[in-house]
Each structure stands twice: as structure tokens, then as C-alpha cells.
Amino acid sequence: MAHHVLEPPITEEQVRALRVNDTVTLEGALYGIRDANQIALFDKGRKTKFDLRGAAAIHTAPNVKKVPPSPEHPTGYAPVCVGTTTSARMERFTRPLLELGVRIIVGKGGLAKGSLEAFSDLGGAYLAIIGGTAALETTWIEAIEDVDLDDLNPESIWKFRVKGFGPLLVAMDSHGASLYEAVQQESRSRRAQTLARLGVK
Amino acid sequence: MKVEPKAVEEVARELYVRALKVLPPDIKQGFARLAAGETDATAKRVLGTMITNIRVAEETENLLCQDTGIPIYNVWIGRGVEIGGPELKNAIRRGCERATREHPLRSSVVHPITRRNEHTSCGPGVPPIHIDFSDESEKLVIEMIPKGSGSENNSWLRMAIPAEGVDAIKTFVVDCVLEAGGKTCPPTIVGVGVGGTSDLCMALAKRAATRPLGSACADAEGAKLERELSEAVNLLGVGPQGLGGDSTAFAVHVEIAATHITMNPVAVNMQCHSARRASASITPAGVEYGF
Q: What pTM, to 2 d.p., does this model score?
């Protein structure tokens, strides 16, 4: 269970070194992605100005406030509260996202088999953050560096600059391992005994 | 007691922000209880991070979770409270909009077909405002619940039949907890509605999911069922965030209503670990905020 500090661009070699139960701290750029912006990219054919090769992305749509543009807030947005949303809704976007070059997806609740195969085929990993702990997560965000597809606000594509973002748990790796799949198998195997305990015939 | 719409607007605004920032004491105690009993090392760490987040949110006066949810307002009008009905509803809506604009908060509310976000946290039928009456004199109570989507997306209704008995209810709840896995941000409060019509059954589940921890179903059979289910779902090993462990749910809450001789409906609605709610009482003495 090694700890890794990763700063994008992340190489295939770096991401394939990650194994489930390892921990990761991210530094530098982190892209906020979401339902609406991935529907825009992958269903509606819109393009992003961001080069996502070697990128780390997080399933989020933050609370932001408008401020006068300044060197600290170049986009005119300051972060208020940045957290993580349930990844499962965005399952079908994992492969196209990896095809754009994304190496790391940060999310909560896990992704399914299709994503696990994409991580294996293309070289990627899923890092679990603790959902619902956005106040803490916000303290790891230094700034909103840039924004794209902002007509979808708050579901724009956000480019955050992060410092000491983690530790995050490697929950799905590029070698076919998924902590979620393991827990699901275990909990489903306990269904019969749980129903028996409840006196269900 | 005459209540001015302006006072209600201010309370509705304040409640949304308060609910998003400070967890009720019963939920904090629930965390302490789960953390003390948890045997899985990863789950212990996850619970520890959640508890740290509660502290950081209070210290930095920030939102606990980025999901501002669908804002829900529950209102209880006591005896002798004077306010126009439409004015009351409009005032709550204005307060909700103002909280969103003035804090500012992420508006998480869109039109269901165009997906357009008006950046007001309001839209057709939203916020839902549920109005009921209480026996208390000169007291208007407003409760605000920001209902996060991770948990709300895991809602189920099953119109079981009498021949399936209580076993159908128990099996359904266990299967919903398994299906939800980590998507609902466990540990959760599993709200179960039993009986009623289809819509009432779902509303009961929501009421159960948002009831304070430590409270019990007023019906003795319902209370017995919730005790049994609370113990059972934590045997499944889903754990905090679906990463394994003993702490899958703070509790299972059950609310019941009578139903038809041919029906046996059961509904499940879950509340995530960021089980946020805030309330205010408006009396002749002024406004008192609580949970």
C-alpha cells in the first residue's frame, strides 16, 4: 500500500504503477467534469479548449462566486465550496474521457465494469474521495485557473489548481481490481443470512 | 399572531444557509456512535474524515457538501397564526432564491426537459413546500431540508401484494440497501414508507429519511420493524462510501399509513451522511432557530 504524489501530466507508466489500496495526493491541475459537460462533449459533439492528455479529472460541480478578474482569480470566479458527486451516473463517459488522454478520475461511490475495462485497456485509475466532505476538500483548492463551456454553469469544465489534494484511495486500478466490486460481491453474499436474521421465509 | 411575509422570507433564506453549514446534534452523535463501534480499518478512516469535515465546515463557515440539493420546506401552522396562504408560499420561495443569490449557493435545480438552470434554486414545483397544521398556539414552524441528489437518486417504490406479507417489505429494504451500495454516500438514514397510496408511501419514506436520529415511529409495529431493519442492514458490510465496513446506515426509519385491503406498498428513500436540516419557530417572542 504505497503512497504516490502525482502532478499532471501523468504518464501511462505512472498510472499503471497504482494498485488498489494505494493512496495518492494530487498537485497542480485538476479538471472538474460533470453530467452536462460530458453530455456536451460526447453526445453533442462540442469541443473543449483544454488539452486533457495526462490529466486528472474530478466528478464535481462547485459552488463559486463571481469576483473581479485578478491574478488570483483569472476567470472572475472564486471557489466557495468544491466537492465531489456520485460517479455512477457518468459511467458511460469513462472510456471517451480516457481516449482524450485523461489518466485519473477522482469521484465517489465508484464506477462499474465498463470503466474498469477502460482503465485496463487505456491506462487509467479511479481515486475515491470521501463524498460529502466538501468543506475539507475546498481547503485543498488553491484557485480556479480557467473555465470552459461556461454556458453550462455550474456544470462548466473547471480547471482547478490544487495543493496537497488527498490522500485519495486508489479504488479501481488498471490491473482489473476494484474495491467496489469486491465489497459488492461480499455484501451480496451476506443477503441470505441477513434475510434469515429478519425471519424472512 | 399576525406574521409578516417579509419575516417568513428572511427565515426561509437563513434556514437554507444554516442547514447547509451545521449538522444537527443527533447526526453528530450518530457519527460518534458509528465510529466507536466500527471494526473495519478503512471504514474507521472514512468516518474520521467525515467527522473532520463537520468541524472544518463550522470553522470555515463553509458548506458541508457542495450539493445544495433540492430545497424542501415543511411548514406547521399553529392555532391563531394569521398569514395569507399564497403570501406564505411566495415568501418561502423568495427566501430560497435570495439565499442562492446572496450567499451565493450553487443552484442545483434545472427544468427537467430543457435542463435549463435559472440559478435561483427554484423552478416549476420547486421548492416543494409542504403545509400542515399543529395544535400549538401562536407558533409557525418552518423546517428546511436540502435533499442531496446522491441519496435522492436512490429511491424506490414497490406495490407489493398482501400475499407477500411483511417479508416483502423486509426483503425490499435489504435489496435497496444492496442496490444503493456506495452511491448514496453511506452511512445513510434509510427511510421506509409502509402502506398508504403510491404517492403517500413515497412521502412517508421521505419523512422517515429526514426524521432526527433517536426518534421512533409512532406506531408500535412500525417501531419494531425499524429496530429489526436497523440491525439487519448493518450486517451487509456495504460500509461508509461503499468501501466496506459495519457502518452502512445510522438507522432505518419507518413511517406507516393505513392501506387498501388489496395493497402492501413499500417505498425507500435514503438520506446521505450529510443529513442536513434546520428549523425555525416564529412566535410572538420572535424567531428561534434550531434543528
A: 0.96
A113 touches chain B (CB under 8 A): no
CB B8 within 8 A of CB B142: yes
Three-state DSSP at A153 gives coil
Interface test with A, best of B185, B241, B248 (most A CBs within 10 A): B241
| A-B contacts (CB, under 8 Å) | 172
Chain B CB within 8 Å of residue A67 CB: no
Query: Is there a contact between B228 and A198 if contact means CB atoms under 8 Å apart?
Result: yes
* β-sheet bridge partners, residue A33: A59
B27 touches A at CB < 8 Å: no
pLDDT tens, N- to C-terminus, chain B (291 residues) = 999 999 999 999 999 999 999 999 999 999 999 999 999 999 999 999 999 999 999 999 999 999 999 999 999 999 999 999 999 999 999 999 999 999 999 999 999 999 999 999 999 999 999 999 999 999 999 999 999 999 999 999 999 999 999 999 999 999 999 999 999 999 999 999 999 999 999 999 999 999 999 999 999 999 999 999 999 999 999 999 999 999 999 999 999 999 999 999 999 999 999 999 999 999 999 999 999
Chain A contact for B229 (CB, 8 A cutoff): yes
